[in-house]
Amino acid sequence: MRLSAGAAKMTAVVVLLLLLHFALGPWLGDRRAGPDLLLLGLMVYAMRTSPGRAAVAGFALGLMGDSITVLGFGSGAIAHTCVAYLAAWGRAIFFTDNLLVSAGFFVGGTWFRDLLLLASGGYLWGGALVWQLVFWSLVKGVTTALVGVAVLFVFREWLNVRMSE
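The structure corresponding to this sequence follows.
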Protein backbone atom coordinates (compact mmCIF):
# COMPACT_ATOMS: atom_id res chain seq x y z
CA MET A 1 0.00 0.00 0.00
CA ARG A 2 1.49 3.31 -1.08
CA LEU A 3 0.93 6.56 0.75
CA SER A 4 -0.18 9.55 -1.23
CA ALA A 5 2.13 12.55 -1.22
CA GLY A 6 -0.12 14.40 1.23
CA ALA A 7 -0.34 11.43 3.59
CA ALA A 8 3.43 10.96 3.47
CA LYS A 9 4.01 14.61 4.35
CA MET A 10 1.52 14.46 7.23
CA THR A 11 3.18 11.27 8.48
CA ALA A 12 6.58 12.99 8.35
CA VAL A 13 5.30 15.91 10.46
CA VAL A 14 3.71 13.55 13.02
CA VAL A 15 6.84 11.39 13.25
CA LEU A 16 8.96 14.54 13.68
CA LEU A 17 6.74 15.64 16.57
CA LEU A 18 6.96 12.19 18.19
CA LEU A 19 10.74 12.13 17.91
CA LEU A 20 10.98 15.65 19.32
CA HIS A 21 8.71 14.65 22.21
CA PHE A 22 11.14 12.00 23.40
CA ALA A 23 14.35 13.79 22.38
CA LEU A 24 13.54 17.28 23.70
CA GLY A 25 11.07 16.40 26.45
CA PRO A 26 13.52 16.74 29.35
CA TRP A 27 14.71 20.14 28.10
CA LEU A 28 11.29 21.71 27.55
CA GLY A 29 10.91 22.70 31.17
CA ASP A 30 8.56 21.40 33.81
CA ARG A 31 6.59 18.40 32.49
CA ARG A 32 3.45 19.88 34.01
CA ALA A 33 3.71 23.06 31.93
CA GLY A 34 5.73 22.17 28.83
CA PRO A 35 4.14 21.36 25.50
CA ASP A 36 3.05 17.77 24.97
CA LEU A 37 4.37 16.97 21.51
CA LEU A 38 3.09 13.38 21.65
CA LEU A 39 -0.48 14.59 22.05
CA LEU A 40 0.10 17.35 19.51
CA GLY A 41 1.23 14.85 16.87
CA LEU A 42 -1.79 12.70 17.64
CA MET A 43 -4.21 15.61 17.34
CA VAL A 44 -2.66 16.84 14.07
CA TYR A 45 -3.21 13.34 12.69
CA ALA A 46 -6.69 12.93 14.22
CA MET A 47 -7.95 16.23 12.83
CA ARG A 48 -7.12 14.98 9.32
CA THR A 49 -8.30 11.36 9.38
CA SER A 50 -11.31 9.20 10.20
CA PRO A 51 -12.38 8.55 13.82
CA GLY A 52 -11.50 4.84 13.59
CA ARG A 53 -7.96 5.46 12.38
CA ALA A 54 -7.54 8.23 14.93
CA ALA A 55 -8.63 5.92 17.75
CA VAL A 56 -6.15 3.23 16.68
CA ALA A 57 -3.36 5.81 16.51
CA GLY A 58 -4.40 7.17 19.92
CA PHE A 59 -4.27 3.70 21.44
CA ALA A 60 -0.82 3.03 19.99
CA LEU A 61 0.60 6.39 21.05
CA GLY A 62 -1.00 6.05 24.48
CA LEU A 63 0.73 2.72 24.97
CA MET A 64 3.97 4.29 23.80
CA GLY A 65 3.59 7.03 26.39
CA ASP A 66 2.58 4.51 29.05
CA SER A 67 5.74 2.50 28.42
CA ILE A 68 7.85 5.21 30.09
CA THR A 69 5.58 5.80 33.09
CA VAL A 70 5.60 3.90 36.34
CA LEU A 71 2.01 4.27 37.46
CA GLY A 72 -1.31 3.67 35.76
CA PHE A 73 -0.22 1.58 32.77
CA GLY A 74 -3.05 1.65 30.24
CA SER A 75 -4.59 4.92 31.42
CA GLY A 76 -2.67 6.82 28.74
CA ALA A 77 -3.91 4.42 26.07
CA ILE A 78 -7.50 4.97 27.16
CA ALA A 79 -7.11 8.75 27.39
CA HIS A 80 -5.33 9.14 24.04
CA THR A 81 -7.83 6.87 22.31
CA CYS A 82 -10.78 8.95 23.54
CA VAL A 83 -9.13 12.28 22.69
CA ALA A 84 -8.13 11.14 19.20
CA TYR A 85 -11.59 9.77 18.45
CA LEU A 86 -13.30 12.96 19.65
CA ALA A 87 -10.83 15.19 17.78
CA ALA A 88 -11.56 13.32 14.55
CA TRP A 89 -15.32 13.70 15.09
CA GLY A 90 -14.90 17.33 16.11
CA ARG A 91 -13.29 18.03 12.77
CA ALA A 92 -16.65 17.32 11.15
CA ILE A 93 -18.39 19.85 13.40
CA PHE A 94 -15.82 22.65 13.56
CA PHE A 95 -13.77 24.27 10.85
CA THR A 96 -10.32 23.06 11.97
CA ASP A 97 -8.34 24.92 9.31
CA ASN A 98 -8.78 28.09 11.33
CA LEU A 99 -5.69 28.55 13.53
CA LEU A 100 -7.72 29.89 16.46
CA VAL A 101 -10.11 26.91 16.35
CA SER A 102 -7.14 24.55 16.07
CA ALA A 103 -5.55 26.19 19.11
CA GLY A 104 -8.81 25.66 21.00
CA PHE A 105 -8.78 21.99 19.93
CA PHE A 106 -5.23 21.62 21.25
CA VAL A 107 -6.06 23.26 24.61
CA GLY A 108 -9.29 21.28 24.98
CA GLY A 109 -7.68 18.01 23.94
CA THR A 110 -4.80 18.46 26.37
CA TRP A 111 -7.11 19.33 29.24
CA PHE A 112 -9.52 16.46 28.50
CA ARG A 113 -6.64 13.98 28.17
CA ASP A 114 -5.29 15.12 31.54
CA LEU A 115 -8.75 14.73 33.07
CA LEU A 116 -9.02 11.17 31.76
CA LEU A 117 -5.47 10.33 32.86
CA LEU A 118 -6.03 11.62 36.36
CA ALA A 119 -9.44 9.96 36.67
CA SER A 120 -8.33 6.57 35.38
CA GLY A 121 -4.86 6.53 36.90
CA GLY A 122 -5.82 7.66 40.38
CA TYR A 123 -2.72 9.87 40.61
CA LEU A 124 -4.09 12.78 42.62
CA TRP A 125 -6.93 13.40 45.03
CA GLY A 126 -8.66 16.42 46.52
CA GLY A 127 -7.02 19.80 46.23
CA ALA A 128 -4.04 18.49 44.28
CA LEU A 129 -6.38 17.11 41.62
CA VAL A 130 -8.28 20.38 41.34
CA TRP A 131 -5.04 22.40 41.18
CA GLN A 132 -3.69 20.11 38.45
CA LEU A 133 -6.84 20.44 36.33
CA VAL A 134 -7.50 24.14 36.93
CA PHE A 135 -3.94 25.40 36.59
CA TRP A 136 -1.32 22.99 35.28
CA SER A 137 -3.47 21.28 32.66
CA LEU A 138 -4.52 24.64 31.23
CA VAL A 139 -0.93 25.89 31.18
CA LYS A 140 0.15 22.68 29.41
CA GLY A 141 -2.76 23.13 26.99
CA VAL A 142 -1.76 26.69 26.16
CA THR A 143 1.90 25.79 25.59
CA THR A 144 0.85 22.82 23.46
CA ALA A 145 -1.50 25.09 21.49
CA LEU A 146 1.25 27.66 20.89
CA VAL A 147 3.57 25.00 19.53
CA GLY A 148 0.67 23.46 17.58
CA VAL A 149 -0.22 26.72 15.88
CA ALA A 150 3.46 27.22 15.00
CA VAL A 151 3.60 23.69 13.54
CA LEU A 152 0.42 24.26 11.51
CA PHE A 153 1.77 27.58 10.26
CA VAL A 154 5.23 26.26 9.34
CA PHE A 155 3.93 23.07 7.73
CA ARG A 156 0.72 24.58 6.28
CA GLU A 157 1.60 23.47 2.73
CA TRP A 158 2.35 19.89 3.82
CA LEU A 159 -0.76 19.63 6.00
CA ASN A 160 -3.04 21.44 3.53
CA VAL A 161 -4.00 24.06 6.09
CA ARG A 162 -5.83 27.02 4.64
CA MET A 163 -5.13 30.20 6.51
CA SER A 164 -8.59 31.54 7.25
CA GLU A 165 -9.61 34.46 9.38
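The first helix runs from residue 5 to 24.
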